[in-house]
Amino acid sequence: MLNEQRAGEVIALCQLLIREQSFSGQEKGMAGRLREYFLSSGFDSAEVDGYGNIIGCLKGLRPGKKLLFDGHMDTVAVTDESAWTHPPFGAEIVDGKIYGRGATDMKGALAACACAASAFGADCKKDFAGEIYVVGSVHEECFEGVASRSISSAISPDYVVIAEASQLNLKIGQRGRAEIVVETFGKPAHSSNPEAGVNAVYQMTKIIDAISKMEANSHPILGKGIMELTDIISSPYPGASVVPAHCRVTYDRRLLVGETKESVLAPLQELLNKMMVNDPSLKAAVSFAHGKELCYTGAVIEDERFFPAWLFDKNEHFVQAVHSELIAAGQTPEISHYSFCTNGSHYAGEKGIKTLGLGPSFEHVAHTIDEYIDIQQLTGAMEAYMAVMRALLAG
User: What SS3 class is residue 382?
Assistant: First the structure.
């Protein structure tokens, strides 16, 4: 049950977390704050893994399912603090809103998860069936779901709640995301004698045109498997008086359920093969982008940038159980899906774990100047998470 004291607690924790700058790879301070909260608020343990993910565990007195609440600690950077009306790490409260980088994405949600678990355990004196995990993960802004692999491996959860912003609506899926790299390989020459070379950029423009004419896949619920050009670069760069011998473009590909690495690349490779047969001077390749980042623990996190889609049927028992409990708690959630990518790409997309999205605030507020979270949404999330615990850990 939420009261004035508990509302004050989740507000204070949210402010505390906002004041800890935690850009991707710099989450150590925030992990420490969460660990302090877990150990002082009834959790049975608070562990930090090799990547720097913080995992708080609250165990029920009876055996049962494992319920994991997922939130990432990292935020996008603040490039110009002077552009903010409210200091990005000040956590100021103005007109019922808490301002600061990560307020919506997603320090408010993490505060609500932690406080909800603590309150739930206190209310029932831990007389529930199962285990509750609240996780603060690293590097989500760079690698959706990659750091989560070590978490699911250690815990093997039965249910996962992705606490990303949803206006307290239930999300049962999302499109995935891949970064696809297309390269062309030409022949360098002096730009005063271009016929002696092969311009890789000219070759690339032919490919870009051909890709733009490819029909996108579609899904009746998730929509189109968009493929959008996001960057292009040639080398050498700058190319002073040199015909570029290499060109690289990146596409953002939004993935649909059932799509695999092989099925996504196959039509692109087929297109390139046909074009190279028709034009022997064309040399091209397609692959997934590879990312590599340093964690604050010193560990390296790296992988191909391919994060699968996922979708559950709204009539599945666990979805309806949570929906019914939220309504009983006085909330009015709609059932839909996220329009962006989350750590659910691992939990649901890779592992098939029963997963829901449920979080406070509005997705359009994330990553913006003067990012904020509405206090009503924050306290509502705490109530919502307690309802999820009642629905899934009844025993």
Answer: helix
With b for 16 or more beta-carbon neighbours within 10 A and e for fewer, the 23-41 pattern comes to ebbbbbebbebbbebbeeb
Give pLDDT tens digits for 249-299. 999 999 999 999 999 999 999 999 999 999 999 999 999 999 999 999 999
Phi and psi, residue 17, nearest 5°? -70, -40
Do the bridges between strand 62-72 and strand 129-137 make them parallel or antiparallel, or are there none, so unpaired? parallel
- Residue 179 to residue 392: CA distance in whole angstroms: 36
**Measured between alpha carbons, how far is 219 from 334 in angstroms, rounded to an integer?**
20
User: Distance (Å, rounded) from C-alpha 392 to C-alpha 129?
Assistant: 9
Residues 6 or more apart whose CB falls under 8 angstroms from that of 309 comprise 173, 174, 175, 176, 222, 255, 256, 257, 258, 259, 345, 349
Contacts 24+ apart (CB under 8 A), 373-376: 373/14, 373/97, 373/98, 373/103, 373/104, 373/108, 374/96, 374/97, 375/7, 375/11, 375/93, 375/96, 375/97, 375/98, 376/96
Question: Which strand (E) or helix (H) includes residue 8?
Answer: helix 4-18
Confidence at residue 240, expressed as pLDDT on a 0 to 100 scale: 83
> Which residue, among 113, 108, 138, has the nearest Cα to 38 in the 3D structure?
113
**DSSP letters for 250-263:** EEEEEE-TT--HHH
State whether residue 90 is helix, strand or coil.
coil
pLDDT at 394: 79
Helices marked H in 186-289: 200-212, 261-278
Work out whether the CA dihedral 194, 198, 201, 204 comes out positive or negative: positive
- Give the per-residue pLDDT at 395: 67
DSSP assignment string, 94-112: ETTEEESTTIIIIIHHHHH
Which residues, given as ranges, of the chain have pLDDT below 70?
Answer: 1, 395
Q: What is the pLDDT of residue 179?
A: 97
Q: Which two structure tokens, joined as six digits, stand for 2?
A: 């939420």
